[in-house]
């Protein structure tokens, strides 16, 4: 027994003697002649016996970082190599403040084609981020990778925000992702680079996006399975996510399933004030249950016969069901019951070609939306039925080419045909209607890099819109949407961009439905089928500063919106009818500030603040001007290797509308994460730890004011986990420059 005890003690001593800590080399590589940062330097870290430990590539700021298991007191060898600089080696102990100067070798970089990616770089108009292997290990989901990037934010409903705006275009290898819920179908381990563009290409001028995110991936043979369920403690909230990806040779298969379930309680208060009679009417309605469930299915297949050609097909299906029962708050009398079925189908096929000079893409797609809802009003014993069917057929062809070493041309054509049929039945009679529509879009855009400081971008989108109704009424619209940007960069860290852009937004299906529906006692609503598309013109001047992990931008802007869709009020039966109409002109002046930095190695902050002044000259019964501040904060604390805390908060200010305003709800979330092992993470989530989910709408006329206030009981504690299984070839980082003298494979 004594011998066994001594053996255990000896074993522990030996183990502790060989125990190693995680240490790091980091620093900057500079040009020996002008002391400027050198990008794309290949750094290899070796032991003194030439054992390979790790490698890195410098970013646009000349910065690099390598972490490994080792001893703080030992010397290690660092080899530096670059195509246009002489090789250099140094012997050093681990440190975070290395500054190495390299002497030019005499090679001219303009004579050599270099392909590479940057850790963090500004190419004048876009921000590019290389996703490190270490970051991939930390993030099980692609959405978690996006959360680590400056100015980006992902909420608990998978909405992606860029500088506080959620109208974000998501692309995978340059191809549009059909639905935001498919973001996490991209395996996090396949993500190589994320490109964030704050200026939308001309081809998307008719889709109302505020920013674009292009996720660049690398195919590797293998199987990836991700399972992520989520449930609230009180059983009122369930989410489930299952993703399956299979890469084998030239073939790729993706499958995804998502389920969302909510069983909540909502409180709505409507206040109508008659100015002529000085009377006030209240209606307090409780929705219990306010429940809905959505099942989403996605399947995709791609075939790559060569490195240049890709064929693909994908399909998306959503089955949405909503059930609500409303009663009066005070005496609990039943008001109405609401049942809705909303089915959505998207199918797309595409073929693409890409080489070092040209890129071409052809897409065809079909979209189907089918709405069936039923309302039962208990007191009046009235039932209403509504059915709407919308079919869309789309075609897109685009061609991109490099005109010269400094210029690139993007051009294309898009066409869409829409057929919409609707019917509405109440106890008295049947209403029906429909329309057919066609849209055409022809666009071209050129990007020119004048020199190391100046980049010029210009584009044009010609857009034709036509909608014809069964009754013979016709809506036509033709617009030209120009775009221009001039960017100037100096001293590596500073960049200023002047931009003018314009885009269009078509009316939603709901805003076009012409059927009258009683929302709450005395308040009726209906859509307007002849609404015009909304046009937005924006001028901005952005200054940005980037150094290391710090990113700051300041953007004053002016925005003008023509035909903005707003709510208006008129007398109807025993109450008021709220309907949609186009506003002639809306104007907005503002300044936006974005900030992102690693305040400490364990604390990351992303913040965005926008203050602006809104103006509507047509307002007669409410303020013509309104000052508003929107802000957003994401704070991430890495407390230890396995523990992390995330806090997210979005504040939405009042939005000026026609003779009134809209105050959207604020949103906030706190999340505690524990990493069990390389495959599993546990989450404790607190939804709305601060405040409550409530929104308010106010509208007035010469004789009446209507205030609608809604609060939803959504303060919940959620438990979740993610299980990520990978089998197959691991992602291998390939260095841009190869050290021919290395002694390892």
TrEMBL record:
Residues 1-21 form the signal peptide. InterPro entries: Beta-barrel_TonB_sf, CarboxyPept-like_regulatory, OMP_b-brl_3. It is found in: Cell outer membrane. SUPFAM superfamilies: Carboxypeptidase regulatory domain-like (SSF49464), Porins (SSF56935). Residues 363-723 form the Outer membrane protein beta-barrel domain. Transmembrane segments: none annotated. Keywords: Cell outer membrane, Membrane, Receptor, Signal. Pfam families: OMP_b-brl_3. This is TonB-dependent receptor.
